[in-house]
Design goal:
Ubiquitin-like (UB roll); Hypothetical protein af1432; Beta Polymerase, domain 2; 5 domains; 759 residues; five-stranded mixed β-sheet; alpha+beta
């Protein structure tokens, strides 16, 4: 069957499980030919050009799988043919049939995606690639909520509905031939089919496939129960044959008398549904009464209700056993009227009434839009599928011919807008679309989120702001010293992550403000001649209670936090505390009082605080003057802002000092600050090509990091001002940076800015 479309031979191409490379025996050729004949017989709905494309895909797949055998000894190509045949029964388009034939070529034969794109086009290659990715997913847990998440993830990962349909066809054929696979694998494959693939078929309305997958899984999970139940049903069938025939004749006669054109078909409950009913309700086989039923197919929706009336006149209905799935369709689009009647000899018989269009949807679900288009290409009736949901899908398919858009519409109804990812231990987690690694960390546990330091997705290091995609395996790296970063709030999506980060930052700010308040109060007490802070000694408890009543604070922590935030003045609280201590008989130390007053900062009423840059939220460095180590500084306890540090000669600080001098405290720089500080500079340049790059290079050479640039709003002149905020270690580092700039030919002058620069 050679052709110009032969794939490049590969000596190292892997052989599928159970396959082996050898010459194809005559019996195998016959099996492959028979399989192909079964497929071609079902392709009469394709155009000649589409048919030829499918033939080419078959030839390519046949060559790719040459020499590979299935476990039963048949050539491997019989499996892709069987999958394509099932897709042809659903009347899927040529691209889907080609992908079905080629679905194992990438995984098992070493054919590349690029090769498939070159030979069969991008859409077919994308379908095959999607199927290959789904095959790599392994489901390793029996937990029900995990199974539901896994189903949703499969649906979410498939960008095209046809990927899921081909996958279901693939699983159906694998289950039909599971007996040829070693028995040790039956349990895992059958459990996966029962928990994952059968519910997906049901969700998509593929009723026939759903029932078959359930029965096949039951057969291989519980062979003895299946065989026993199968014999019981066969016996019951022969015993009740006369009864069933009698009911059918009476029903046909009743509809003939009413001059109704109907098609009546027998319906038998599947073995698995019988078993499940017996198991869940603790019934014996004899107690399951609705094994047999009838399906009544009618031309119009109104005929369903007319047929119901005729049947209720013929036999007595069982109370509570009527369901109207026409008025309220199931999520997957299924519509029918269900009623259970008491037939001859008191045997319950179930009837389902539906139109032909509803029957197509009931049996083929999502695939119905292809089926219906093929059967009724010119039909424009608005209720041709009898359900608004599937009607809207049909409209999209007809208007756009875009399977991806069609599938997106289906997914809106099937599950919320979510991504499904794995933990390293294969647990599945659902998160909102757009969720990041940090959202994932907080979804596991708030402690994991708080301690997140780095992350890996699918084994590769990624930034914490990376958005997650369906099927990602996410691993979070934590460290005891890590803490939430305020910048995370800019990209997290989940409310849980946002609230946990905010809570941590708020607690952190409160703790730091409390520590600062404690320092300020201790220094204010020293200035009043009290060396030791009244601590948790029970003897001081009455004094603290009186002090809290005076300040109106709930507890000591709140009082110290308020002092740290500038809501209370430390020296006023200290004076009150000294007064209360004096009542108890403790007097200020005269020597300490003299020493503190002699060494105290000239412009402040309290002792000074040492700053090294590690103070975080409790201390702010004013943007109006941007103080840096080396500057003479003062501290202002703003109302509710904590300690705000200004340069001593800052005009704003001088105004505040004039109005609110008691709120100023002495502050000084530590000998070795632990971080860089921001300073504003103004660089006047001669406008020209590349001037900004030259200025940036000069700053980089001085190791001054640029935090912000403001080029102003006015139109460029011959010379212009560039305003920078740069991070420097101290005043001498800033001087070095300014000298570097002033040596640059493009720079007219560079100086420190005392005016606020946004950034």
């Amino acid at each position: 069957m050679g052709s110009s479309l032969k794939p490049t031979p590969r000596k190292d191409a892997p052989v599928p499980e159970g396959g082996q490379k050898e010459a194809r025996p005559p019996a195998a050729v016959t099996a492959a030919s028979a399989s192909l004949a079964g497929l071609t017989a079902k392709l009469d709905y394709l155009t000649p050009s589409d048919y030829e494309q499918v033939r080419q895909a078959y030839r390519f797949a046949d060559e790719a799988h040459l020499g590979q055998l299935r476990n039963n000894g048949e050539p491997y190509i019989t499996h892709p043919i069987a999958v394509a045949t099932q897709c042809a029964e659903w009347k899927l388009d040529a691209q889907a049939l080609m992908a079905a034939l080629l679905h194992d070529a990438m995984e098992d034969c070493g054919v590349t995606k690029a090769e498939l794109i070159e030979r069969f086009g991008s859409p077919v290659a994308e379908l095959v690639d999607g199927l290959t990715k789904l095959d790599k997913l392994q489901f390793n847990t029996r937990e029900e909520n995990q199974a539901e998440s896994f189903r949703k993830m499969l649906l979410a990962m498939a960008r095209d509905v046809r990927v899921i349909l081909i996958k279901l066809a693939d699983r159906t054929h694998n289950m039909r031939t599971l007996s040829d696979v070693p028995r040790a694998k039956w349990g895992r494959i059958s459990t996966e089919t029962q928990d994952i693939y059968a519910p997906i078929a049901h969700r998509l309305g593929l009723n026939q496939t759903y029932r078959e997958l359930q029965d096949l899984a039951f057969r291989h999970l519980h062979p003895w129960r299946y065989a026993t139940l199968s014999k019981a049903v066969a016996k019951a069938r022969s015993r009740r044959r006369d009864l069933i025939q009698k009911v059918q004749k009476e029903v046909e006669a009743a509809f003939a008398a009413a001059h109704m054109n109907v098609r009546i078909a027998g319906r038998e409950k599947t073995l698995y549904s019988i078993y499940r009913k017996m198991d869940s309700k603790n019934l014996s086989f004899a107690q399951v009464t609705d094994i047999y039923g009838f399906r009544v197919l009618v031309p119009q929706v109104t005929d369903c209700y007319t047929a119901l009336g005729i049947l209720h006149q013929l036999y007595k209905p069982v109370p509570g056993k009527f369901k109207d799935h026409i008025a309220i369709a199931k999520l997957n689009g299924y519509q029918s009227l269900h009623t259970t009647l008491v037939g001859p000899s008191g045997v319950n018989v179930e009837f389902q009434m539906r139109t032909e269009a509803m029957h197509i949807v009931a049996e083929s679900g999502v695939a119905a839009h292809w089926l219906y288009k093929v059967k009724n290409p010119d039909d424009t009736s608005s209720d041709r599928l009898g359900t608004q949901w599937l009607q809207s899908l049909l409209d999209i398919q007809d208007e756009t011919r875009d399977a991806a858009e069609f599938w997106d519409h289906v997914k809106v109804d099937l599950f919320p807008d979510a991504v499904y990812v794995f933990t390293p231990k294969s647990q599945i987690m659902a998160l909102p679309r757009g969720a990041t690694v940090v959202d994932f960390a907080y979804a596991i546990h708030s402690n994991v989120g708080d301690r997140t330091m780095a992350a890996r997705i699918n084994g590769e290091q990624v930034p914490l702001r990376t958005e997650l995609k369906n099927g990602d395996v996410v691993e979070v790296v934590t460290a005891p010293v890590s803490a939430p970063n305020p910048a995370w709030l800019a990209f997290v999506r989940t409310g849980r992550a946002r609230s946990k980060i905010r809570h941590h930052l708020k607690t952190l700010a409160q703790t730091e403000s409390e520590e600062l308040g404690g320092k300020l109060l201790a220094q204010a007490l020293r200035a009043e001649g009290i060396e030791h802070f009244p601590d948790d000694d029970p003897a001081y408890e009455p004094i603290w209670e009186k002090l809290l009543r005076f300040t109106g604070s709930k507890n000591r922590q709140e009082l110290l936090t308020d002092i740290g935030l500038g809501k209370r003045i430390a020296h006023i609280v200290a004076k009150r505390l000294v007064h209360l201590l004096a009542e108890k008989g403790e007097r200020p130390d005269a020597l300490l009082l003299t020493r503190e007053r002699f060494t105290a900062h000239e412009t402040t009423s309290q002792g000074s605080i040492t700053l090294d840059g590690s103070e975080n939220a409790s201390v702010q460095f004013a943007h109006c003057c941007r103080p840096i180590p080396g500057d003479a500084i003062v501290g202002y306890l703003g109302r509710g802002e904590g300690l705000v540090v200004h340069v001593q000669d800052c005009p704003i600080a001088k105004k505040l000092q004039h109005k609110d001098s008691e709120r100023f405290i002495g502050v000084e720089w530590a000998d070795e600050p632990v971080r860089a500080f921001e300073a504003g500079i103004v660089v006047t340049v001669t406008n020209g090509k590349g001037v900004l790059a030259k200025v940036a290079a000069a700053l980089a050479a001085a190791e001054a990091d640029i935090v912000h640039i403001d080029m102003g709003q006015e139109a460029p002149h011959d010379d212009m001002d560039l305003r920078f905020v740069v991070a420097v270690r101290d005043a001498s580092h800033l001087e070095t940076a300014l000298r570097n700039l002033n040596r640059n030919p493009s720079v007219i002058r560079a100086s420190r800015s005392k005016v606020a620069t946004s950034g």
